[in-house]
Write a structure and sequence with these properties.
Chain lengths: 194, 194
DNA sequence: GTTTTTGTTGATTGACGAGTCAATAAACTT
DNA sequence: AAGTTTATTGACTCGTCAATCAACAAAAAC
């Protein structure tokens, strides 16, 4: 009963399942069978569509990064003025979508993956580059010659807050994370009301 | 030719080798044989002394945490006044010892380990708790009722900077990391010269 | 209506790795 | 000197898992 045009559907299901399983397991030690099972197919089919486990991981990572990018772009679209745009980026970074347990767990493991797999490192570099230039662009004019340092700090702070959320026991608390980041920002901008 | 009293020596060698190998591989996917080989013994002996790979990992993690704790304590011992003490903590966090490639790589993987292994989570919680209370204690009086938020931010910032160092391509750059953290601090304390 | 393309899986292969065991040897004890 | 404890390893077991294969099914193309 092979319905045609299954490929994109299956691939999407596998990507989603990969993220879920990595988040669940809290590590990259997930078997292809586990992923395939969660996606409702045989492990052979998973290999058929992706070729290898690593490709599945990378596809999952791309997906997470894409979602994040979309969220940021969406938030930026409705924000006017540099300060509002900065706030928008922060809020998007800790939005409900990116801040689910599984997603945070997946991120953590993608960081680890980036240590070994060049393509993962590349993807992560793109994300960091975009974030950095977004921050920097909006900070220039607001923070003067301190813009570069503030951007670096903000970027690191976001990652740090993200990391801590992923590790803590209770449910993720986006509100307090975003509060800390916003506080950092407003504190840094004090005295620079252009 | 069994010399007696080998146990502590071999355990220490294994712990060191574990950190090195995890750092090298950039993941927890390290075989006991690899570790044992680097430590100059058979894998059987490694199992003899530690019982399991997980125990080795935990011992390595304890060691890293111990070193970090010692470094902080040492730096605090010669610092007078809350502000100097805060700076001391920051400098210790990014000290040469804690900031070698392998160590940072190991940290990253310990974070991952903490997602799965309760004992690892416990150890990490102890580290975070100590750091937090150290920061908070010295921030009270300097930052007034903002102390709690600043402490949270500083803690996350440290982790974030650490994380980014671990991921970046070139050699770790402690100086710029500590500069960002110090900048955050001084910015937060502005206007609060008690 | 036969051939090709697409979807699908159970079974199998082949490698690798954690942990165990039996054996050997040197030191300490009594 | 006999017995015990500590050190040490090569060989082996047992499980797991990524990846492949052979085979079957249905739709599409010719």
């Amino acid at each position: 009963m092979p319905k045609l045009g299954m490929e994109p559907i299956r691939k999407a299901a596998l990507v989603k399942a990969t993220i879920t399983e990595i988040g669940r397991a809290g590590s990259l030690d997930v078997t292809v069978s586990q992923i395939a099972k969660r996606a409702g197919m045989s492990s052979a089919l998973a290999h058929h569509y992706f070729g290898s486990k690593e490709e599945m991981f990378l596809a999952a990572m791309r997906h997470v990064l894409t979602l994040y990018g979309a969220e940021v772009r969406g938030a930026l679209a409705v924000a006017e003025g540099p300060e509002a745009r900065l706030r928008a980026i922060l809020r998007a970074s800790f939005s409900a979508g990116n801040f689910r347990r599984e997603t945070v767990g997946a991120w953590l493991n993608f960081w680890v993956l980036a240590q070994t797999v060049p393509e993962a490192k590349r993807l992560l570099a793109i994300y960091q580059g975009r974030l950095q230039s977004n921050l920097l662009a909006n900070l220039r004019g607001l923070a003067g010659d301190r813009a570069a340092m503030v951007a670096t700090g903000l970027g690191a702070l976001i990652d740090g807050l993200y990391l801590r959320e992923g590790l803590k026991s209770g449910p993720p608390d986006a509100a307090s994370a975003v509060a800390v980041a916003l506080d950092y920002l407003s504190q840094q901008l004090e005295g620079f009301t252009a």
